Structures
1.
Amino acid sequence: MEEPTVVEKKPTILTLDVGTYYWCQCGKSETQPFCDGSHQGTDFEPKQFTLAETTKVWLCMCKHTHNSPFCDGAHKAL
């Protein structure tokens, strides 16, 4: 299986409105942390997540989290 591209070794902190989002799992998107379709031709698919209220989130940018799309500190071991 392919390894994702590490974008940063820290999360990105955003306040997101109610809605459905698609988090980039491959690390190749130009619209990080969200998918732009750059995973085409890879083993990766975007991770869909939905927020029911405006929420401050810590999104993984190292792409090695075990709690996608949220940061779990995995970047500390890279």
2.
Amino acid sequence: MAAETDMTEYQYSLQGLDLSQAQAAQDLLTVLKQESDTFELAEARDSLAQQEQDESLVAAAAQPQKTWLLWANAKNGKQLQVGIASIADGEVGIAILAEHQGRGLGRLTMEALIDWAKKVGYDRLWLDVDETNEVARHLYHTLGFVEVGEDTMPILLQSGRQANLVKMELILA
């Protein structure tokens, strides 16, 4: 018996997160945290990072921050939240459910985030990515991000796996 594949076609949209979507966002984050180490990596990185307050960080903190939910609208009318993206203090974050990866959604989302960042006055964006995540690193490179610094940041995850974060930056000005 052949395995059945879900052939549902979706149209995707990106919507700013507001309080009316809080439960949907929380439900999505619960699933994303089970599928990926992305959020654990960010939390571990933040706890290890020095809280240096230089002029660039102070300037970045004054810039707007935004979080978006990524929605999939099926032809049958069903609407699902399939990802989340954010920009805060110049840091870009994106996570998409595994089932919806490989469809160009990451690229479209990143392009929308970059466009928004330019409109609101950011001069640069940055992110950390696991050095083994070749698909994401390739995407970021094609969008103009470059790796900065020579060293990776090792993070030991609860699973026992060691991840090595690579910092990437995109100059917008």
3.
Amino acid sequence: MLALLLAATTGQAQTKPADLLLIGTFHFDNPGLDVSKINTLDVLAPKVQTELETISSRIAAFQPDKIFVEWSADDQKGLDDLYAAYLGPDYAGYVKTKFPKQAGGFYARNEIIQLAFRAARKAKLPRVYAMDYRNTQFPYDSVMHAMQSARQEALLQQVQAYVKSYEENMNRKLATYSLTQLLLDENTQATLDSNKGFYLDKVNRAGTASNFNGPFLVSEWYRRNLYMYSIIQKTVAPTDDKVVVLVGSGHAAMMREFLSFDSRFRLKELKDVLKK
């Protein structure tokens, strides 16, 4: 009996890996929730809108079966309603009525609307999938306090230098790069490694030997991303051949590692999709 079960399980596992296009991005509407203070790109500008048409067409040509976005998984209905309105005749009127304070902000500019919804409509997808998980902590102030209490002046300077350098570089790119260049840059191995390395190389070392504020923040960051990735794993069907995941670059840096150990998926690079 055990042998039969093992054989059946093995047979079920031998499905063809799905191609997963992982797109790390800066947040188009920039809610200001990150440690770094980054300027905002005007995604409604005609030139950027033209780029978004091209980028979304390339993503649609990838022929995804599902597109996942950074929207709370607990509110799939909210995302469904928003996407239905987007497909309707008067999306602007819908959000102006339902979300009057954010109609010109998040609901007009965020990458979910500007890129994911646009690509999903072109790909004729009936739904866009929510995969964010936010019931975690990010005690950055506690980590900084732990460094100060442990008199880790050199580490504090490294953190401050990293944040300042990131802010300056990103703001320079926002002022000089096209949207396509920005997205390609966000998805280079060097950019993703730098993002992930900040947590392990700097945050994880915070505090004395008996203080774990740093590792706690890092573990919470891992937990959030593992939960998000788990939602993707459990939502993708065996019959799905291609999947798109659009998330903030910090999440993409983590998920890239998870993908390298997941036989169910084969990573596809944004640069290759945009070339076609």
